[in-house]
Design goal:
The protein is mainly alpha-helical and about 240 residues long. About 45% of the residues lie in helices and about 0% in strands. The structure holds protoporphyrin IX containing FE.
């Protein structure tokens, strides 16, 4: 499994069950891509984030994402340079977008595999993470240790206190350009919420690998159309 396995299976299943409901009511008229995009925005707003414009009428790629495609996601021990490259290769993102998007870790949790190599100067906090990982039943760790269920700027405050969970989170305070953005987002929540929504809007409009009109609407988000075989082990991909 790649270091960052992407959306949890339970989230993928939720998208598929929404697709099933919509297709039963209206036929195969809405793509997994559109449903994923709309559900992402709704989840963000549910936790207190701001809305943004989502394109509708996009097609799906032919099949679910392969393990290789999921492996392109940035990993928990990646440097700022490497994370930035991943985003730059996909679309018109700049470093401020990358720092803002990292703020998504104001919600959600990570498993031990993602932070067992956490380095850093806050010995007490790192010790706590390590003790959790060496216990017989390690618990998933909130990525925002202050307000894990609210979409706010506390993630950046945590980073400044060296209480980021992933090495990739902490990398943002060890880089001379990104530390300034972290400080500004920690100081000005309104600016963070605005920049995050703008970056998500860019993400929602990213083009897939094929031509926009060459895709199709998948009849099951986990499968290639016409294939009734096994459900794919990995998630499903963005639009064509
Ligand atoms: C900047 C580079 C990023 C890296 C290196 C990264 C890495 C990770 C890792 C390793 C996890 C924990 C996975 C686990 O242990 O189960 C995680 C969780 C999460 N990430 Fe990221 N991520 C990045 C950017 C993003 C972006 C751009 C978003 C969304 C806009 C995002 C949203 C999330 C969420 C919501 C979770 C929690 C998932 C859950 O609770 O199931 N991440 N990320």
């Amino acid at each position: 499994m790649p270091q960052n396995a992407g959306l949890q299976q339970i989230a993928l299943q939720l998208i598929e069950s929404i697709r099933d409901t919509v297709h039963r009511a209206c036929g195969p008229t809405v793509s997994c891509t559109d449903i994923t995009n709309l559900a992402t925005r709704l989840a963000l707003m549910h936790f207190g984030g701001r809305g943004y414009q989502v394109p509708l009428g996009r097609f799906d790629s032919r099949g679910p994402a392969t393990e290789e495609q999921v492996g392109i996601l940035p990993g928990p021990d990646d440097s700022v340079e490497s994370i930035a490259q991943t985003f730059y290769q996909r679309g018109n993102f700049d470093l401020l977008d990358v720092v803002a998007l990292s703020g998504a870790h104001t919600i959600g949790r990570a498993s031990c595999d993602s932070f067992k190599n956490r380095k850093g100067e806050n010995a007490e906090f790192v010790g706590k993470l390590r003790r959790n990982c060496s216990s017989p039943l390690p618990m998933p760790q909130d990525l925002d240790i202050q307000t894990p269920h609210t979409f706010d700027n506390k993630y950046y405050e945590n980073l400044l206190e060296h209480k980021g969970v992933l090495n990739s989170d902490m990398a943002l305070v060890h880089h001379s350009d990104t530390i300034k953005m972290v400080r500004e987002f920690a100081r000005n929540e309104d600016w963070f919420l605005t920049k995050f929504s703008e970056a998500m809007q860019k993400m929602a409009h990213l083009e897939g690998e094929g031509h926009p009109t060459l895709g199709e609407i998948r009849h099951n988000c986990f499968k290639i159309n016409g294939n009734n075989g096994d459900t794919a082990a990995q998630g499903f991909a963005v639009s064509a």
